[in-house]
Amino acid sequence: MSREQLAVQRARKSFQTGNTKPLEYRIHQLNSLLRFITERRRDIADAVKRDLGKSEHGTELFETLGLEGEIKLAIEKLAEWAAPRPVEKNLLTISDEVYVQPEPLGVVLIIGAWNYPWAVTLQPLVGAIAAGNAAVIKPSEVSSHSAKAMEDLLPQYLDKDLYPVVTGGVAETQELLKQRFDHIFYTGSSTVGKLVMEAAARHLTPVTLELGGKSPCYIDKNCDITVACRRVTWGKFVNCGQTCIAPDYVLCEPSIQSRVVEEIKKNIKEFYTDNPKTFEDYGRIVNQRHFKRVMSLMEGSTVAVGGDSDESQCYIAPTVLKDVTGESKVMKEEIFGPLLPIITVSGVDEAIQFINEREKPLVIYVFSHNKKLIKRVIAETSSGALLANDCLVHFTVSALPFGGVGNSGMGCYHGRHSFDQLSHLRSCLIKQLKMEGVNSMRYPPHTAKKLGWARFLLLKQVNVCRLRRMALLAMLAGLAAFVVFIRFSERMKPVKCRLHCR
């Protein structure tokens, strides 16, 4: 029996004990995960530094800070999320107890990504724990130091049977995918996402696929170009461009192209100095295979800014490309590196057409003062998310579902969305063995009269909460009328007395 198979069996056996059902146990595990993030902050930062060249402050900002927020939110809201959820009834079920009860799915497989090896691996784990599942955690082997740190340290804080960490490469992942899970949560490329979905289909296992794609960024010529380019520069070159929601390419009119190039050049210098290679907060491409892939994407395009590289350090400078078309090599795949192509379009009409001719992206960025233009892009395109006048920050809002559509993924997570994604929302209806006269209309023979009553009772939706509010308002109105009547009667007593005396 393989190591992977043993890990899955242990997790399932532990889940079947029912230990994860009580909310107190889930909260205990979430507090332990929070303690892990707090106490091992330095170990996490060191691993990310060795994998991606990221600074300690960068790791805290883009990896652990968001994790802390997700864990604390789950602890605070868990009782509310896990509680039965009343639903509207029809007249046939008005006296019944009807609700949705979230329940654990079982054993979840979480396959993480290498670009943010802690955030995108442990955030789904927060949802899995909160929902009462067991989870097998498979960190990406590409970020090898982070994977090793997770394997060594996480079992010291979490139940090692319920939440085992399985490391390894393609062979180990393939072996895991042969096992039966109750849900698979994968973050990575569309190519591998298809393989994950194919493997899941053999067991009819539902999947959440957090993929990527080429996220466009349209800059309106009438917006504040200085501010827009500052925000685009930050969003693009964070983590050396290795961010699934980074702006992949810019669409703008020819009249502002040179201005956009100059503003981005100015911001690169401000953010990363004249020599980004020596700057602490500018990272590295994760390995030489990806370095060569990113460098090859520049073929056929003109370098307007940057272009420097050092293969021995997997260093590529923040780079802006111009003279790019939809047929250029850099437009054939998600860049996932510090290259920013600029494509000129005649205006928002052509920009929308250009976006719609391609696969649905994970996010669309729009920079404009014109709210009608922004609303038009929302109405006439499709993407996992749309963000106007900034980059990346929608990821920080736990109330927003984070996920793709079409080629950029399926399913979503963050906050309550993580809990719901990794729960079975079970329909529950509890009747009493009474009122058989009403129920008898369901039984044969089905006369026209019975059908008429059934149509009325089944199709008439009843909002019980609204009825309760109306009843409460009626009671309050009646009470107010009674108080007014009493006060009026008290005031009338002296008048009646004087009349009587006369």
UniProtKB/TrEMBL annotation:
<dbReference type="InterPro" id="IPR016163">
    <property type="entry name" value="Ald_DH_C"/>
</dbReference>
<dbReference type="GO" id="GO:0120553">
    <property type="term" value="F:farnesal dehydrogenase (NAD+) activity"/>
</dbReference>
<keyword id="KW-0597">Phosphoprotein</keyword>
<feature type="active site">
    <location>
        <position position="244"/>
    </location>
</feature>
<dbReference type="Pfam" id="PF00171">
    <property type="entry name" value="Aldedh"/>
</dbReference>
<keyword id="KW-0520">NAD</keyword>
<dbReference type="InterPro" id="IPR015590">
    <property type="entry name" value="Aldehyde_DH_dom"/>
</dbReference>
<dbReference type="GO" id="GO:0004028">
    <property type="term" value="F:3-chloroallyl aldehyde dehydrogenase activity"/>
</dbReference>
<dbReference type="GO" id="GO:0005789">
    <property type="term" value="C:endoplasmic reticulum membrane"/>
</dbReference>
<keyword id="KW-0472">Membrane</keyword>
<dbReference type="GO" id="GO:0006081">
    <property type="term" value="P:aldehyde metabolic process"/>
</dbReference>
<keyword id="KW-0276">Fatty acid metabolism</keyword>
<feature type="transmembrane region" description="Helical">
    <location>
        <begin position="470"/>
        <end position="488"/>
    </location>
</feature>
<comment type="subunit">
    <text>Homodimer.</text>
</comment>
<dbReference type="InterPro" id="IPR016161">
    <property type="entry name" value="Ald_DH/histidinol_DH"/>
</dbReference>
<comment type="similarity">
    <text>Belongs to the aldehyde dehydrogenase family.</text>
</comment>
<dbReference type="InterPro" id="IPR029510">
    <property type="entry name" value="Ald_DH_CS_GLU"/>
</dbReference>
<dbReference type="InterPro" id="IPR016160">
    <property type="entry name" value="Ald_DH_CS_CYS"/>
</dbReference>
<keyword id="KW-0560">Oxidoreductase</keyword>
<keyword id="KW-0492">Microsome</keyword>
<dbReference type="GO" id="GO:0006631">
    <property type="term" value="P:fatty acid metabolic process"/>
</dbReference>
<feature type="active site">
    <location>
        <position position="210"/>
    </location>
</feature>
<feature type="domain" description="Aldehyde dehydrogenase">
    <location>
        <begin position="7"/>
        <end position="426"/>
    </location>
</feature>
<keyword id="KW-0443">Lipid metabolism</keyword>
<keyword id="KW-1133">Transmembrane helix</keyword>
<protein>
    <recommendedName>
        <fullName>Aldehyde dehydrogenase</fullName>
    </recommendedName>
</protein>
<keyword id="KW-0812">Transmembrane</keyword>
<dbReference type="InterPro" id="IPR012394">
    <property type="entry name" value="Aldehyde_DH_NAD(P)"/>
</dbReference>
<dbReference type="InterPro" id="IPR016162">
    <property type="entry name" value="Ald_DH_N"/>
</dbReference>
<keyword id="KW-0256">Endoplasmic reticulum</keyword>
